[in-house]
DNA sequence: GAGCCGTGGAT
DNA sequence: TATCCAAGGCT
């Protein structure tokens, strides 16, 4: 620590300074300097495209499962235009078992839009990022921050949990992001751009490695001493139960099985092959229809199906 | 805004 | 074994 700056930007009405006069970002950024994981999309050579690909893949999917697919993806499609030149079905196939395969379709669509509208370069403008398919509030801020060093509130599930505990004093954040959370995130953002970008990555990493959903490790937390939830005795979550998603027997499971068959086939697949994956014909047909309407499957003549060529 | 959309590891 | 949950987005 060489900067004894007094953070004169924290006024009395600043929620960031409401519970404690000490800003959170300094200890968290220092902690990050020592404990950040060496992830491929954090290396300089990843570039904005690497960052963007990783963000798509990491939407609801753990780092450990993303790593191998990310490497293959970047080796095969090192630039957006390389992916855009392929059939969307190839993106779906290369997505493998990461889950939520519509993300592969959207990433392909985003690569096409980047190639057409932005000369093949991932845009650095937040609004232009937000306009791309598959990029919402979180991902736009993440790409702008991680790839271009810009100052944006980056509110993912990790950061929301860290804020809920450290500042608000509750175990878990609400199910959906609220205006209050956005306001808080903006208030906590360091003024300096490079510092804000560092804070975004650091607060996210803290939630991923230390302030985890279960079995949090306050012993290793750089802000444990100022954590409102911990200081309150770590009260258990109140309110509606956090939505638990069932899976067995759902359309999602059927869709997954159907798409797995198509992914592993080299070309078109007959209806009869798809009929093997699920016994109940109504649900099976509904799932297949859903895949087709989502653009993940292309129906051909004679009851054949394949991954989309266009 | 609630519901939907995959998959597999950890507990 | 059943449940939880992992860097969300879209309708």
From TrEMBL:
A single GO molecular function term of this UniProt record: oxidized purine DNA binding
Protein name: Adenine DNA glycosylase
PANTHER family found in the cross-reference section: ADENINE DNA GLYCOSYLASE
GO biological process: one example: mismatch repair
Sequence segments annotated as region (Disordered): 1-21
EC number(s) reported in the record: 3.2.2.31
Pfam families assigned: HHH, HhH-GPD
Keyword list, A-Z: 4Fe-4S, DNA damage, DNA repair, Glycosidase, Hydrolase, Iron, Iron-sulfur, Metal-binding
Sequence ranges assigned to domain HhH-GPD in this UniProt record: 57-209
Start-end of Low complexity biased regions: 7-21
This protein's record includes keyword Glycosyltransferase: no
Catalytic reaction equation(s): Hydrolyzes free adenine bases from 7,8-dihydro-8-oxoguanine:adenine mismatched double-stranded DNA, leaving an apurinic site
The family this protein is said to belong to: Belongs to the Nth/MutY family.
Cofactor(s) required for function per UniProt: [4Fe-4S] cluster
Keyword tRNA processing listed: no
